[in-house]
Amino acid sequence: MKKTNPFKFGSVVDEPYFTNRVEELKQIKSLLQSKNHLILISPRRYGKTSLMMKAVNQLDRPYVFLDLQLVTDISDFASQLLKRIYRIYPFERLKQLIKSFRIVPVLNVNPLTSEVDVSFQPAASALPVLEDVFNLIEKLGKNSKRPILILDEFQDINRIGNGLDRKLRAIIQHHKYINYTFLGSLESMMREIFEKKKSPFYHFGQLMYLKKIPYDDFYEYLKNGFSGRCSHTGAISKNILDFTHSHPYYTQQLAFTIWDNCDNSLTTEENIEAAIHRLIQIHDMDYERLWQTQNQTDKKVLIGLSRHEQNILTETFARKYGIRATSTVFSSLKRLMKHGYVIKNKTAYELDDPFFAEWIKRKREA
Ligand SMILES: Nc1ncnc2c1ncn2[C@@H]1O[C@H](COP(=O)(O)OP(=O)(O)OP(=O)(O)O)[C@@H](O)[C@H]1O
Ligand SMILES: [Mg+2]
Questions:
Q1: Alpha-carbon distance 215 to 195, whole Å?
Q2: Is 18 in the pocket of ligand 1 (CB under 6 A)?
Q3: pLDDT 10s digit of each residue in the chain, 366 long?
Q4: Which residues contact 109 (CB under 8 A, 6 or more apart)?
Q5: Which residue range(s) make up the domain with 144?
Q6: What atom in ligand 1 is closest to the CA of residue 152?
Q7: Residue 307 contacts by C-beta under 8 Å, 6 or more apart in sequence?
Q8: Count of domains observed in the chain
Q9: Residue 251 CB less than 6 A away from ligand 1
Q10: Which ligand 1 atom sits closest to the C-alpha of 9?
Q11: Is the same domain home to 47 and 190?
Q12: What is the CATH number for 105?
């Protein structure tokens, strides 16, 4: 009997928790071997970071990865980047190049880990500091392998500094020895940054939209994971995917919970129900809070979506829920999408989190 749970959710995954994405991996690697830049977009937790890390780990190239969500301001942006540069390039080489910085960084070496901590003296404007760090990466690329710079959660760029997208574009547009990759999840905001004609990053690189993992592949992956542990592996896998609609994170989470508690004296449906119940219970307080922060129309739209009502943008729907007009429903959908609660697949809208959908349904039926 298998001892360790073969499913994983929440953090970046690689083999043996990684499935499919063969074509995407090929495309990304090929793009990074050219002189182009990449913009990778998907709803939350579809596997952007995992895919990107897998791609760069298969290329014999230096890379710097920075999650912009954790960056507080422009000076911190520069420090965090430089700290990561110190992890991959020799100290002596950097020492020479950093001499030309307009503001000299303060370095602290942790004697136990040899990790370098970087900070900059406060300056009237932190932008020159950031510019120097980006230009440093360009210089490093000029004389050795082209570095790959991965800026994750890039939609946060203008939170770090007002109009920073425009300023950053001005800094990096002349770079020839770096492959830039921008990853982001709030779809509408990423579109604003990369698709609007007036946006500074318009046509800056290849746009790639990551979709859910294809059904057949995910099914095989799940079935394989359950074998030797739970009975009816095919039926369990099918039921999971019916519930999660192949969402990478929620599929792994549900599979993980079922595997852990799998009771072969119960039916498949009972095992699935027990796991769904457990997960909804765990998130009850989060969902309660989420629900309370929605306005009346948004609540109605969420209810409609949780019931998989297909006619969401029709007068019939608006009338049924006492909403003034379909345009009001549309504004609500846009708002919910902007916050990542709702996603649009092909033509249908759906709730991103199938457990939240189930929570709404159960609360209303209770
Ligand atoms: N190729 C894959 N095969 C199987 N599961 C995957 C795969 N990619 C992602 N997942 C599942 O989705 C979860 C989220 O992955 P990851 O953190 O890479 O997504 P993300 O799009 O970067 O998320 P975020 O929006 O939070 O940044 C993983 O922990 C894993 O459970
Ligand atoms: Mg990520």
A1: 30
A2: yes
A3: 668 999 999 999 999 999 999 999 999 999 999 999 999 999 999 999 999 999 999 999 999 999 999 999 999 999 999 999 999 999 899 999 999 999 989 999 888 888 899 999 887 789 999 999 999 999 999 989 999 999 999 999 999 999 999 999 999 999 999 999 999 998 888 888 988 899 999 999 999 999 999 999 999 999 999 999 999 999 999 999 999 999 999 999 999 999 999 999 999 999 999 999 999 999 999 999 999 999 999 999 999 999 999 899 999 999 999 999 999 999 999 999 999 999 988 778 999 999 999 999 999 988
A4: 115, 116, 117
A5: 22-209
A6: 27
A7: 361
A8: 3
A9: no
A10: 31
A11: yes
A12: 3.40.50.300
